[in-house]
Protein 1
Amino acid sequence: MKQTKIPAVTINRLSFYARYLFLLNLKDVNVVSSTQLARACGVNSAQIRKDLAYFGQFGVRGIGYYVKDLLAELQRILGLNKKWRLGLVGVGNLGAALLRHTHIHHPGYTFVNAFDHDPKRIGVQVGNLIVDPVDEMEETVKTAGIQIGVIATRNKMAQQSVDRFIKGGVRGILSFATVQLQIPPDVHIEHVDFILKLDALCYRLTAN
Amino acid sequence: MKQTKIPAVTINRLSFYARYLFLLNLKDVNVVSSTQLARACGVNSAQIRKDLAYFGQFGVRGIGYYVKDLLAELQRILGLNKKWRLGLVGVGNLGAALLRHTHIHHPGYTFVNAFDHDPKRIGVQVGNLIVDPVDEMEETVKTAGIQIGVIATRNKMAQQSVDRFIKGGVRGILSFATVQLQIPPDVHIEHVDFILKLDALCYRLTAN
DNA sequence: TGCTGTGAATAGTTTCACAGCA
DNA sequence: TGCTGTGAAACTATTCACAGCA
């Protein structure tokens, strides 16, 4: 499938396009041109055509793209047509917020287990889940078929949590921790780091 | 100060370097080379030297960088040596988690006000703050001297909240919403979008 | 006519490689 | 000697511009 190495920015944009196409589809819009899509997503129209060209030809010359079809193609390309089973470790403020988060536009993601190392939190219900102890992680991750591990622990516990997910067979990690994490080459990791974003704002506000 | 346009990726890396230097400083390490720093941050050493070169010369040939000095320089460059007053709108699961978040390594950021549009939430204490109604935003943002506005509302309310912050004089926005937001050219915005990151993981896990 | 798809041109970023200096 | 600082080279990404087709 992957003819060549697709840049991460392209994947993020595809995800963004898919979101907008989803909205257009809700509004019963049938056709959209790369120029319209570009305006809505704040990018150049050639960019959109190039991004799509990595994966094939999805448009009709003189017309544009059929919204339903392109949306379906993008969902297939990104893997959003499947169900994804998520595990969470660290049921603090952030972790609990994630569990209670309603994924309206993304019914494909479900948290199936939550873990914590703090005995006071174990057995407590958060959202739809009962918090499990971290020492059951490896086993539970295997039996529950968890595919993506979400790290919402303190930095100190992050590496240990990653290791446990990986031992359980997880190949994708979403980390909210602000430390570098060691992972084997066949595992993918994405970082969500809003302090970094705040720092960028400070810089822009300071540097005029 | 800003001789040329500094790329956003460079700013993010500087922030990352600063974090690591902060840790080194805690451990009383005095000197670090670009090679050591590079290994710790997972980048090329020339990259670090180039990133720093945008702002000046901070090293000593044959030695490396003095940790304390470089940290201070980076904090000055990024504006992290100042105190920043943040306002939050949307005290749902995520917003409440942010208010309760302890910024151990970043004492420069403080939430000074929280707003919500839901009457049931107004007057309630979350973290150290009492939730205020959104229709007081413009006024409160001015009097409280809020410099950065954080958007943690539902997508529907996001644009309205941005507008209110900007009317109150805010020039920097951190948005957790997943919609495009309209802002005037003198306002800076950063997006935190973990669904986009999850989508990227799905793609990588799907595309093998 | 009015769009897509794409080669070519441009712009931006990273890495190499080494001069220059403590 | 062993590092930084930096021009040049290599690489990557974006945008232009237009051929090709419904």
Protein 2
Amino acid sequence: MNKDLQKKIDQFTIEGFQKQLINWYRDEKRELPWRESLDPYHIWVSEIMLQQTRVDTVIPYFENFITKFPTIQALAEAEEQEVLKAWEGLGYYSRARNLHSAVQEVQEHYGGVVPNNVKELERLKGVGPYTKGAILSIAYNIPEPAVDGNVMRVLSRIFSIWDDIAKVKTRKQFEELVSVIISKEYPSEFNQALMELGAMVCTPTSPACLLCPVREQCHAFYENVQHELPVKTKKKATKQVQMAAALLYDRQGYYYIHQRPSKGLLANLWEFPNVQLKEEPSFTYKKQLENFICDEYSVEITLTPLLGTIQHVFSHLTWNISVYSAEVIGSSNMKGLIKVSEEQLKAYAFPVSHQKIKKMYAENTRSE
DNA sequence: TAAACGTGGCT
DNA sequence: TAGCCAAGTTT
């Protein structure tokens, strides 16, 4: 612990802080589906879904997921495609694949019981420092820090900490701090209260300090610097990528789709045939796509004129997709694609970018 | 350590 | 509008 922070802790009234924070939480906490359950598996699922994702977005996904996979055993026995389908549209799909794999690990090696200790938890795929602490404290009421973005924002303001919260070293410092101030009697409520305060009161852009139950001990409030904290380095601009995609269909009403590789972006999800375009094409986009589909999948097609373009922004890049369609005549030598009916298509997990492609095709078709 | 990894809502 | 952000983890 650094000297400056230790000094602030020495002047800090820990018990008063715990009491004010937890009392506020008991009065003001939101009713959320995962708060209705004490099942460590349900807590675990919610914590994975909530990573980098808003509460309002997660709620319907959580309810559907728990209905479909109510127990560790149910999820462990499910097919990965079924799991990805339940995650479709939620993003960061490796979370779903890691959760599935970790749950199988728990089913096999821990008799279907979510571990209640640091050593076993941190070996599970997708369970990092935050999620480990969240499961231990919320599911098992063990006083472990669960430091997320909310907690770092709240505590950086209360203790006036100006270190960059994007650094691992800074997060570790906050974990040390939480270890000291956490309620040993009510660690679950303490950790959740800290996060709830960050979400509802001590918000990023316009903190409601006058409604804050702990402003009395907040350094930032007294120095009026709450808008300058926390300090966080900025991300770089996203890279632009040019793509062309084709929705292939045939007279029998089948669609032709492709599964993405098992690693990297959108791993194992399904998509319509597409190719990343060269910077300065010697061929037109349409010709590049036609050649690619012919070479890669051995199907002969003639593309329609451009249906439209779609921009899809990821966290680290932007896809600019030119969308075409084509009727497949002969597919006897086809490889790397499968053909599915409209009805079967619904069982496959597609990224939002390709759902947009399907929608654009449907709208073009309808207007003919 | 820094980049990869999704999506949708807000300012 | 364009950028920032939301209960992070993996490589």
